[in-house]
Design brief:
Length: about 425
C-alpha cells in the first residue's frame, strides 16, 4: 500500500496528531521505519519501488508536465517487481494511481501486472474539467482499467465527483483480488497506490470527521488499510502475507499535513522533504514492535521483497540495481540495514543533498517551502549532524568548519553513480530502450 504525500507527522504511530489506529496496529505488529527515504516526486518514488533502480537511471526522476511532447514513464525493458513476481508464479494487480506512463505499452499491464484499475496520472487531474477555462475539446481525464494483453478501457470521468470515492474503489478491488487469489490458492502481489492525500482533497462522505478535509482523508486512509488487512485475515493468509505500507513523499506545504519532527516540506532537501512513514509486517518473520532509525530507500523494497519471498535469483544482472537486500535487517537477523548513504536527486536530475550515516550534506537549498521552489546552489556545501541536530538548524560548515571531510563522504556515492553511468548510460525520460549491448 502506497499513500500519496503523507507526512511522518500525520500518523499517530509516528507521533502525529491524527489518530490512525489501524496503521498504528500494523506498525506494532511489525517494523516501523523512521528513516525511510523517498524520491523527489510521485513518479520517481514509484519508478524506484518497482524497478529497484534510482529514478535518474530509468528516466523517471520527475513528473511530466501537461503538454510536454513525447512519452514518459518506464520503458517496458525495465524489469519491475510485478514482472519478477509474475515470473515467479504470482497473480499481480495494480489498483490506483500509476504515474509511470500514459500510453499503450507503458501501462501497468505492460509492466508485469495481470490487471489494473485506476488513473494513469496524478490526482490533480480530477479538478481540470471543473475549471471555467478548461477547453471543451480537450480530453476529459479518465479512470481506466486493463487486463494483461488487452487494451485499456475508459471506465468513468476522473473529476471532482469521482475523486473522493477513489480510495474506496481501490480498496474494494484490492479486496476482491485478494479473495479471488487466496481462494484459488494462488500467491498474489497487490500493488495499491492510493490517491490520498494528494490534492484536490475532498472528504469521502463516510469519513468526514469534522477536522477538515486533510484530517478526514488521513482517517479514511487508515480505515482503508484496515479493510485490506481484514480481508487478508478473512482469506486466512495473514501469516503468509508480507504487508508493506509507505508514503511516496513527505507532506507538502500548505495542504494541511505535517512532517514533524523533521524540518521542511516535500520539494526541498531537508529531512521533512525526504523522510516519509513506512512499515512492514510479516508475522513470525519481521519482529513485532521493531522500530528502526537505519537508512532505507525506496529502491530497497525491490531487492528486499524479492529476497524475502526467495526469488532474488530473478533480480536482473544486466543493469545497475541500486536496491540493497535488507531481508536480514527486516527479519531482525541484523541491526544494520546495509545502506549508509542516501542520495537525494531533485526533479531536475541533479543532487540536492546526500546523507551518510548521521551526517547530511546539502549541495543546494530550496528557497521556499513550496514544492515548486527554486533550488539554489550553495557556494560551499552545508553540513548537518542529524544525531544531535535532527531539525537541521546548525550548518556546521558555518558554525565550526571542522567537518569538511563530510563532503568527501557525500561525494563517494555521487562519483560511484557517475562512473556507473559511464558504463550504463541513464535511460532518458520517455526513451524507448532495449538494453545495454
Ligand atoms: Ca506524491
Amino acid at each position: 500500500m502506497l499513500a500519496d504525500n503523507v507526512g511522518t507527522g500525520d500518523l499517530s504511530c509516528f507521533g502525529g496528531s491524527v489518530e490512525t489506529p489501524r496503521l498504528d496496529r500494523l506498525a506494532a505488529e511489525g517494523m516501523r521505519l523512521n528513516n525511510f527515504n523517498t524520491e523527489a516526486q510521485c513518479t520517481p518514488t514509484r519508478g524506484a519501488i518497482l524497478t529497484g533502480r534510482m529514478p535518474i537511471r530509468t528516466g523517471t526522476f520527475r513528473v511530466p508536465l501537461p503538454g510536454e511532447p513525447g512519452d514518459y514513464g518506464l520503458s517496458t525493458w525495465e524489469y519491475t517487481l510485478a514482472d519478477l513476481l509474475s515470473d515467479a508464479g504470482y497473480a499481480t494487480a495494480c489498483f490506483g494511481k500509476w504515474h509511470l506512463g500514459d500510453v499503450a505499452g507503458r501501462l501497468p499491464t505492460d509492466q508485469g501486472f495481470d490487471e489494473w484499475w485506476g488513473i494513469t496520472e496524478s490526482s490533480d487531474e480530477a479538478a481540470y474539467t471543473s475549471h471555467r477555462l478548461y477547453p471543451d475539446e480537450w480530453p476529459v481525464p479518465q479512470i481506466k482499467e486493463a487486463v494483461r494483453g488487452g487494451e485499456a478501457q475508459e471506465v468513468a470521468p476522473f473529476d471532482l465527483e469521482s475523486r473522493p470515492l477513489m480510495d474506496q474503489q481501490i480498496t474494494e478491488r484490492t479486496i476482491g483480488f485478494i479473495e479471488r487469489s487466496a481462494s484459488a490458492g494462488k500467491p498474489f502481489f497487490a500493488y495499491v497506490p492510493f490517491t490520498n492525500l494528494h490534492p484536490p482533497m475532498i472528504s469521502h462522505p463516510d469519513f468526514d470527521n469534522g477536522q477538515g478535509d486533510y484530517q478526514s482523508n488521513v482517517t479514511e486512509l487508515d480505515a482503508r488499510a484496515g479493510q485490506i488487512l481484514d480481508a487478508i485475515d478473512d482469506a486466512g493468509v495473514s501469516d503468509n502475507t508480507i504487508v508493506v505500507w509507505a508514503s511516496d513523499n513527505a507532506a507538502g506545504e500548505g495542504f494541511g499535513g505535517s512532517n514533524a519532527p523533521w524540518r521542511g516540506w516535500f520539494g526541498g532537501g531537508w529531512e521533512g522533504s525526504i523522510r516519509a512513514p513506512a512499515m512492514i509486517r510479516w508475522p513470525g518473520h519481521v519482529p513485532e514492535g521493531a522500530v528502526s532509525d537505519r537508512i532505507v530507500a525506496t529502491y530497497d523494497w525491490f531487492t528486499t521483497l524479492a529476497a524475502l519471498v526467495g526469488e532474488d535469483d530473478r533480480i536482473p544482472v544486466d543493469r545497475p540495481i541500486d536496491g540493497v537486500d535488507m531481508a536480514e535487517f527486516m527479519t531482525g537477523l541484523r541491526e544494520e540495514s546495509g545502506r549508509e548513504h542516501f542520495v537525494f536527486i531533485g526533479s531536475d536530475g541533479e543532487p540536492i543533498s546526500v546523507k551518510w550515516k548521521d551526517l547530511k550534506v546539502h549541495f543546494r537549498e530550496a528557497m521556499t517551502g513550496a514544492w515548486s521552489s527554486p533550488l539554489v546552489k550553495h557556494q560551499i556545501p552545508a553540513v548537518y549532524d542529524l544525531a544531535d541536530d535532527p531539525g537541521e538548524t546548525n550548518d556546521l560548515m558555518v558554525s565550526e568548519l571542522t567537518l569538511g571531510w563530510a563532503v568527501r563522504a557525500a561525494m563517494i556515492p555521487l562519483i560511484a553513480l557517475q562512473q556507473s553511468a559511464a558504463e550504463y548510460p541513464h535511460v532518458p525520460p520517455g526513451a524507448e530502450f532495449n538494453g545495454y549491448a
